[in-house]
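Hey all, quick one. A colleague (J.T.) asked me to put the iron/sulfur cluster job into the tracker so the inputs and the structure tokens live in one place instead of scattered across chat threads. No bug as far as I know, just bookkeeping. Sequence used:
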Amino acid sequence: MSETPRQIALREWDDAYERLRAAGVPQPAYGGPLGRHVAEGDTRLRKLRFDNSLAALRLWDFLLTEEDRLQLARDAGKKLVGTMKDLGTVPVMASSLDNLVAFYPDGAWWIPCVMEVNSGLLQIADSLGIDESFCPVRAMLGAFVTGAHFPIPDLLTCSVGATCDDFSAIAQRLNGLGYPILWWEIPHRRVPEDNEGGVQLPGGFRAPASLVRFVRSELERIRLALEKLSGRVIDEGTLSRGIAKANHIRRLLAELRQAAFTATPCPIPALEMLIAEMLAIHFCSDQEETIAVLQDLLDEVNRRVAAGTGYGTADTARMFWVDPVADLQVMNLLEDCGGRICGTEYLFAHALDPIPTDVPPMEALARMALADPMVGSATDRAARIKAEIRRFGAEAVIVSRIPGASHCALEGEIIGEIVRAECGLPVLEIEVPPLTDAVSPSLRTRLEALVETVVNRRSR
Ligand code: SF4
């Protein structure tokens, strides 16, 4: 089904799926009409618009069946590792053994959106003293209590130290409820002083060698725990193979980002790109399938670029997006307003950078963990964002704040000031709650105004 790219509603996808099935088009084992997820409570899908490629259908199917995959893994005797907060490091270690499967309970962050606040998870968090002054990640507490959204993992890890207050508080509450957590510390990243050795990190920052050594020792504790859980040794060869696979995924994403953010017309919508980028964090609990899903998407994107098909025109306003949206529908809204995505920083840039392969694997993972945008300063984040703005030729920046999130109270302002001053671009800061229906008209007005500003600036 290589048709003219267009966004279609859920019902249209389900009709198309039936036609595909009748025509004998092969589907992955987890495939099916997307509408079946609505019956399971994912009602927000009815309001989204999806890219009409088979590759996009596979991507959505893959994303929405993670819970089934985790259950199947457990039934097959594999051990489940719930990795919290580090967004990209421990899953690389766990995935290097084929009897471990890692996932992020933090992914519950999106349940209030996808289930349109009907899951009851936020109410459970409220009852446990974690109210709306916290970010939507508090839904994770409810998911543990109900056991209805992911199997309770055999091992839970969580990075602490240079992490947001929300996550620290919620993970401690979880621990207090009787879920044991293996904590590991990630210190705040700083630049090396003149008299101490510095180490180059993926993504371009430098950190003192002592900090890298410390993180490495913390990750050694994780390695021991994973070995104990799996009953196998994670030696250097095993880890190197795990890193090679993760790098394969990162390479695919780099190609995808390059094409998606630079080609005109835009070959793939913002929403599908957001989902694709997220796969870098934990591979949606299946590394091999992540590779296949991303390869499919990249092939489709390359086909569209070669054919000159896609969304929008050369006049479409080119936006750089900072922070993930709590309501996925806002990515559709951006395009409705005449914008497209040309660069993103969704809080996990370190999960997209290639992991070094010229140093021992544990050293490489420690360097990667320290490259996390969340463990450094807002100025560091702004530096990366500036470089990417120039690389992808963005014409404006949108910072989407997350209600209650402690990481972004002032960060958006700092990033905005730096980008305005040094790139000379307009910056719009918006707050995106898990459901934007009530504020959609004002969000639309603000996004349209930004698009208009971009267009007017071109004629100056
Ligand atoms: S406050 Fe920010 S970094 Fe922390 S859990 Fe929420 S969204 Fe993630």
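Adding what we noticed when we looked at it: Residues 160 and 315 are 45 Å apart (CA to CA). The first helix runs from residue 10 to 22.
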